[in-house]
Amino acid sequence: MKLYTKPGACSTADHIALRWTGQPFEVEVLDKDTMKAPAFLAINPSGAVPAVVDGDFVLTQNAAIMGYIADTYPEAGLSGDGSVRQRAEAMRWLAFVNSDLHPAFKPMFGPAAFIPDPDQQTVLKAGSLKRLRSLFEIADKQLAGRQWLAGFRSVADPYLYITLRWAHAFKVDLSGLDNLAAFQQRMEADPGVQAALKVEGLA
Fold it and tell me: Rounded to the nearest 10 degrees, what angle do helices 84-95 and 156-169 cross at?
């Protein structure tokens, strides 16, 4: 299996998940130019990461790739103990990060795509910061008494960790969210996380 990633993008979460499987894989680190080069566009015509190539199978979209990693290496337990309910719980929190948290950052990454007027972009960003705070409060509450979002280590956790890195970069108010702070510290001490960050030049 080969992962295509860009440092600090959501694809870094897939990189961490692959590290957690303990299985061999390849990784190619791209930048904004190589993501739009013909070689990668042949793999993903949208020019976006992540993308995975596993033999003759090509897969894009982060949530799909995370599910594929978990299902390919069930012994890693990244979707639970094999029960339907634990897999659903892992997918529930993966969906929360993928469908709620991640999109809430889009106005921060590129406000001009939503509103061309710079003055209105300030208002848009303020609304996004408020929305992000409310979403991180949900995650913080879920982590009360737990080390992991789903109650066990799953594919949702690396993705949440990456959004926390974005939150700090954009100065999202995370004050008082002590469960999230402890979660981030645990993640940053994790050998798999450290290895992925080092390869992507983020350590």
Answer: 20
> Angle, nearest 10°, between helix axes 178-189 and 156-169?
110
How would you write the chain as a 3-class SS string?
CEEEECCCCCHHHHHHHHHHHCCCCEEEECCCCHHHCHHHHCCCCCCCCCEEEECCEEEECHHHHHHHHHHHCHHHCCCCCCCHHHHHHHHHHHHHHHHHHHHHCHHHHCHHHCCCCHHHHHHHHHHHHHHHHHHHHHHHHHCCCCCCCCCCCCCHHHHHHHHHHHHHHCCCCCCCCHHHHHHHHHHHHCHHHHHHHHHCCCC
Report d(CA 122, CA 124) in Å as an integer: 5
For residues 94 and 66, the answer to whether their CB atoms sit within 8 Å is yes
- Residues 154 and 33: their CA atoms lie apart, in Å, by 32
- 144 is written with which tokens? 């009360």
- Residues 128-150 pLDDT 10s: 999 999 999 999 999 999 999 99
- Count CA within 13 A, CB hemisphere, residue 48: 6
- Residue 56 has φ and ψ, to the nearest 5°, of -95, 10
Note whether 107 and 128 are within 8 A (CB): yes
Q: Taking the complete model, does pTM exceed 0.85, yes or no?
A: yes
